[in-house]
Amino acid sequence: MSSKTSYTPQPSIHQGDYFMVLSTFISASRNILRGDAGINGDAQRIEQLTWMLFLKVYDSKESEWEFHDDEYESIIPEKLRWRAWATDNRDGRSMTGQELLNFVNLELFPTLKELPLTSQTPLSKTVVKSVFEDSNQYMKDGVLLRQLVNLINDINFDDFAERHAFGDLYETLLRQLQSAGSSGEFYTPRAVTDFIVRMINPRLGERVADFAAGTAGFLTSTLKHLEKQVQSVGEREVYRTSVFGIEKKPMPYLLGVTNLLLHDVDAPEFFHGNSLERNVRDFRDNEKFEVVLMNPPYGGTEQEAIKANFPQSLRSSETSDLFVALITYRLRRGGRAAVVLPDGLLFGNDGAKRNLKERLINQFNLHTIVRLPGSVFAPYTSIATNLLFFDNSGPTEHVWYYRVDLPEGYKAFSKTRPMQVKHFDDCITWWNDRQDILDPGGTHKARHYDVAELIERGYNLDQCGFPQESTLVLSPEESIAAYKTKRAELDSKIDAQLEQIQRVLGVAL
Q: Which domains does the chain have, with CATH numbers?
């Protein structure tokens, strides 16, 4: 027997104060996983926990489907279903130790990775293979594995209300991604997603897409917003087909699928792949959406073969630029979009960035830019970000800017003092009654610019910025990354200013 972390069974959520249970679950799972030699860091801990949570949640969903359909057959072989091997009756007969490790490593994972699919297999079943194709089983101690299985199995997902309560626990796990190394790029703070969804105001019957969906934060914020509109069984079915997502990386894909199942989406249209792999000219009308919400990855680059899927004028070396271009090709006429972007696009003046801004202004209605403090995504990154809101209703006439300042008493947002929805309250009030706002320092906190003025400035959208930057204490690695980003931004600004001067003077480049 192992002398490592012991596990005391916890009551299921409905038996007491579920907030206390959630806290206990996170603490107990962390202690178990820290005791296993196969787990190296938070990212592996979360991945290990999540494929197990997925199987538990999926098993609960299958119980529902079986109740409503006597002919339902699981795509998972009977002996591999969670209920068949994970349940521990505390009678000494459940698998543990090396027997459990052998079962998981040699039977469960190989079988689920190779599940046979056909073109007729429904999404509710294909999702199992999609999840396990790139999942990993890291644990090496079978006794600790049994303890973790028992911990998860004691959570009751048998009723709708309890699954939603567990969503709070899951959201806590996702927040931890922000401090799990590079995995933080897949998590957008809930305050940001909720604010954007509130401003875009999706309506039941509209389809909402995210082409770099991460852990499905925008999609689940959308579902919470739409759920208030559901009044009938028929509308519940509309709700379940309201969101669409694609995610490239395996771990956030796994997290995202589980997140959607927890939000009562039985057959998630949530796919594992690269949204940029298809030529943007090939999208048909039925592949476009009424609403697109995104926080695309930035700072990355794509291969030349991916860039070739875009017109020459939009082939940017910056991944986030390509995603903005993609949105413009997949947004329905009259559709609405919101995207989180770094400062680089606002002031960037290289060919692709400038062409993209011309496209946004001349072919779409870029009506609002909300500027956020640089620490919103800390500790993952200190890069300043912006929320761009536009629609496909016609060319832009003017662009409104609003700067969200740090709350009084804050030097920066942090892991212990993150941004909250209430920090957008002033912006929400302003949104519904837009006026120019001049702050005491003489800079504009809010202002509208006519398109002619922005064009005269060379499509420089870097307006209503922060008068001073927040001071953050960064690790050496973060400091180096921030320095490189800042240097690139300064170089781009200098190039843009030089180009503007040369254009005024009539001097050739």
A: 13-157 (1.20.1260.30)
